[in-house]
Amino acid sequence: MIKLDNLEVRFDDFHALKGIDLEVKEGEFFTLLGPSGCGKTTTLRAITGFVEPSSGTISVAGKDITHLAVEKRNIGLVFQNYALFPMMSVYDNIAFGLKVRKVAPAEIKRRVEEIAGKVDLSEEQLVKKVNQLSGGQQQRVAIARALVTSPPIICLDEPLSNLDAKLRVQLRNELKDLQRKFGITTIYVTHDQEEALTLSDRIAVFNKGNIEQIGRPEEIYNQSANEFVANFIGDINKLDAAFLRRAGIETDQQCYIRLERVYVNQLKPHHVDFGKATVADVEYYGLYIKYTLDADGSTFKVIEKASGVDIYQVGQEVEVSFDPNNIMKY
Amino acid sequence: MSATATLSRPAIGLRKITMSWKSTLLTSALLVLFLWIIVFLLVTPNFSTIATVFWQDGAFTTTAFERVFTSPRAVSALRNSFILAPILSVTVGFVGVTLVLITDYFKIRGAKVLRAGYMTTLLYQGIILVSGYRFLYGQNGFITNFLTSIFPGLDPNWFEGFWAVLFVMTFAATGTHLIFLRNALRSVDYQTIEAAKNMGASPFTILRKVVLPVLTPSMMAVTILTFLGGLSAIAAPLLVGGRDFRTINPTILSFSAMPGSRDLAALLALMLGLATFVLINVLSWLERRGHYLSVSKVKSSMVKQKIKSPVVSFFVHVYAYLLFLVYAAPVVLIILFSFMDSGSIARGELNFSAMSLDNYLRVFTQPSGYRPLLISLGYAFIAATTVAVLMILVCRFIMKHKNRFGRFIEYAFMIPWLLPNVLIALGLITTFNEPQWFMANQALTGTMAIMIVGYVIISIPFTLRMTKAAFFSVDDKLEEAAKNLGAKSFYAFVKVVLPTILPAVMAIFALNFNLLLTEFDMSIFLFHPLAMPLGVQIQNLSLEGLGDGTAMTFVYAVIMMAVSAVVLYVAYGRQGAKEDA
C-alpha cells in the first residue's frame, strides 16, 4: 500500500532520516515507535508531504508521491493536539476537506453525518464549537475530519500523548475499534511502547534516523533484534558477569532477560536454579509487584502478579530460577 | 527526530514542495512592495533629513551645528528638554508606582473607584488632555478661580512654564504604569510574599526586597518610555509652556516653518533621533535581560496587603484620594463644561441652569464643528486599515521566511520605532517637497496623502509587533491540517489563519484608530490647511482663549473619551473582565 524506499531527510547538517525502507500493507495498523528525535515524526511528515526527502521515494499503491504537494496527497492526518479549527463548529471542521474539494452541499451534509455517525458524534455535538467537546470527542472529530474525504491511508501523530493515563487507555481502545471498523491503512507515531504493543499489527522501531527492527509486537518484545530494541521495549535485566557465572552460562555476548521471565520460589524442571537472592527493594503497583534482588553483588529485577501471592519483605531470602531459552543474547 | 526539533529547523523541503508559480509571483510582488516602502518611505526621507544638515549648496558642511549651538532658542530648547525628561521620569515613576501599589498591592478602601479615576488618562491623552488641563488650570479656569478665591494673591497665569508642563505630563504619562506595571505586579507569585513573611520579613522589607525587584525591569522600561516622552514633548510645552519654556519639538516646529532654518530643525530632530535610538537600544537590552520569572510549580495569585499601622493607612488613603481628585476632576469638569454656554466657560463658573445640548448640536450640525471630526475619522480609518493590512502581509512573509532575509524585512519595518515622530515628519516634508520618480512624479508635501503616509509609518512598529504576536499565537498545525485536508496555501490562510488572528487584528486596529484620531505630534507638521485634523483644530481653539471654541473642544474631548472607552473595552476590557473574574 505505502512504500518508503531508501528515504533520507537532511536539515542542513542534521541527518534526520538515514535511508529508511519500509512497506505498510493495506488495512494494516503500522506503528512508528522510538524515542524523541529518532526520526519517526519526520517519516510521518515526509509521508504527508510536510517535509521533502533529500533522497529516496515514497509511493502509495505504486504511485510515486515523493514530490506531490501536501494538499494533493489525500492522506488523512490526525495531529498530536488534533489541530481542530477553533473558530469553526464540529460540522464545519469535518466538512472542511469536502468544501475544499468543492463537493456539493447536499453531499457534504450526507457524508459529514455519515462519518459522524460512525465515530459516535451526535447531531447536537455537530453544531457545537470544538472547545465545547471533551478530549475523547475531540479525538473522534479529528478522526472523522481526516477520514471524511475517504483517504486510502490515515496517519496519527502521537494523538494520545497529551492525555491523562486513564483517558489514554480509554481512547486507545476507541481508536483500535475505529480502525477495525473502517479497515483503513493506518500509520501511527508514538514513543509509548505500551501503546505500540497494544494497538499495532506491526511496529517499526526507530533510533537515530534508522529503523532498528520491523515486526509484530510479540516479535519485537520477545525476539528483539538488538540491544537498543530490547532495552527500549519493556523492562529488561542486563545480566552481569557475576549473574552469568553463578547461572553457569558462558558467553562473550551481552545477555538480557525480561523481568517477568525470572521466577521467585517457582522452580520448574526446565528452569536453571539460580539459588538464593535477597530482596533489596519492593515496589508495589497494585496489579503487580516489582522486586529488586541481590545475589552476590549482582542486582536484578523481578516482576510478579500481585494477586494471591505473598509479598516478600526487604531482607527476605528467596529462591530464583529462570528458563535459559528466555535469555536474549547480542 | 521529534516534532519540536523538526519545527525548529527550516523546513526547506516544505517550501520546495508547495511553491507553485502563482505563489512565487505573489511572494515576489509582496517583496517588491515591502522593499519599495522600506527604501522610499522609511529610509530615504530620513536620509533627506540628514542631508539637509550635512549637505548644503552641493557641499558637505557642519554649519548647522554652529548655528544650533549659537542659537539661544535652540540651546534653551535642548536644555529644557534634557531637564524635563529626567525630572519627569522621577515624578511619573513616583506617581505611577504609588498608583499601582494603591490599586493592586495594598488593601485600600474604594480601590476600584480609585483605579477608575486613575485610568481616566487612558481615555483622553495628548492634545485633548493638555487642552483640558489648560482650560481648568489656566487663566479664568475653574480650578484657578477656585484657588484665587482661597488665595487672592495668586497670579491668574500661575499655570504656565516648566512646572505646569511637568504637572500635566506627570499625570498624563502614568497610563503606561497602569498597564505594564500592574501586569508585572499581578505576575508576582504570592507564595514568595508568604515565604518572606514566614521568615519574619516586615511589610516594608517584603515590598522592597521581594515585590519591587520583580517590578524593576518593567519600571526601567516605563521609565525609559517616560524619558523619551519628556524629550519629545510637544503638546504640553506648546499649550502650557508659555513663552519661556520651549522644548525641542516645538522649537523644531518653529524652525521648520522658516525656510532659512530648516537645517536647524533637521539637526535638532537628528539629535532627538540619536537620543531616542540610544534609549530604545537600552530598552531592548533591558528586555533581552529578561524578567524575574517565578520558578514555583504552582503559582498563587496576589492577595492584597493590609496596611497594619493606622497612621500609615490614613496617610496612604489621603494620598490616594487626593490623586483621585487630580485625575478625576478634569474629566468630570470637561464633561460638565461641555454642556455649559460659552459665558460660563469663559468665567470658569459651573452654572447648572445654563446646561444644554447646544454645544453638541453645534458640533454635529455645523460644518466647522463636524468637519475636523470627519476628517480625523477619515484619516484614522484609512491609515489604521492600511497599516493593519500591510502588517498582516509583512507578518505572513516573516513567518514564512524565517531566515536572514525575513529578519531583515522585520527589522527594516521597525525603523520608525527608533526615530521620533518629528524626525519622520521632517523627513517626509523635505523628501516629498518636490515630485519624486518613485511616487509617480508627485509631490506629497501639503497634500492629504502625506498625512496618511505619516500616520501609517508611525503606526507600523506597534502594529508589526502586535500582529506578529497574534501570528505566533496561531498553532502552526492548524494551517498544516488545512493543507492536509486539501486546502491551498492562500485558502488555508484565509479560512484558518486569518479568522484566528482577526480578533487581535481588530483590537490593534481599534487602538491605532483611537490614537490617530487625536494625533498631534506628526499632524502639526504635515496637516493640509483645508483638511485640518482634530488634534490641530483643538490646539488652535485652545490658543484662541476661552469661549465658543473652548466649548467645542470640550465636546470633542467628551466624544473622544467615549470613543476611547469603547476602543479600550474592545481591545482590553473583555479580556480584563475575564481576568478579574
Give the SSE map:
The complex is a heterodimer of chains A (330) and B (581).
Chain A (H helix, E strand, L loop, with lengths): L1 E10 L2 E11 L4 E5 L6 H9 L6 E6 L2 E2 L11 E3 L11 H11 L4 H14 L4 H4 L8 H13 L5 E5 L7 H18 L2 E6 L2 H7 L2 E6 L2 E6 L1 H6 L4 H6 L3 E4 L1 H7 L7 E4 L3 E3 L7 E13 L3 E8 L2 E8 L11 E6 L5 E2 L1
Parallel strand pairs in A: 3-8, 3-9, 6-7, 7-8
Antiparallel strand pairs in A: 1-2, 1-4, 4-5, 9-10, 11-12, 12-18, 13-17, 14-15, 14-17, 15-16
Helix pairs in contact in A: 2-3, 2-5, 3-5
Chain B lengths: L2 H6 L3 H7 L2 H34 E2 L2 E2 L2 H8 L1 H34 L5 H8 L1 H4 L2 H12 L4 H9 L11 H11 L2 H12 L3 H9 L4 H29 L3 H6 L7 H10 L4 H28 L20 H28 L4 H6 L10 H8 L1 H34 L3 H10 L1 H4 L2 H11 L16 H25 L3 H9 L4 H29 L5 H4 L7 H11 L3 H33 L1
Question: How would you describe what is shown here?
Answer:
Chain A folds into 2 domains: 231 residues, Rossmann fold, CATH 3.40.50; 94 residues, Beta Barrel (OB fold (Dihydrolipoamide Acetyltransferase, E2P)). Helices cover 29% and strands 33% of the residues of chain A. In chain A, the strands form 4 sheets. Chain A has a 6-stranded mixed beta sheet with strand order 6-7-8-3-9-10, with helices on both faces. In chain A, helix 2 packs parallel to helix 5. The two termini of chain A are 33 Å apart. The model of chain A has no long low-confidence stretch (mean pLDDT 90). With 581 residues, chain B is an all-alpha fold. Chain B has 2 domains: 263 residues, MetI-like (MetI-like fold), CATH 1.10.3720.10; 263 residues, MetI-like fold (Orthogonal Bundle). Chain B contains 29 helices and 2 strands. Chain B has a two-stranded antiparallel ribbon with strand order 1-2. At the A-B interface, strand 2, helix 1 and helix 2 of A face helix 1, helix 2, helix 25 and helix 26 of B.
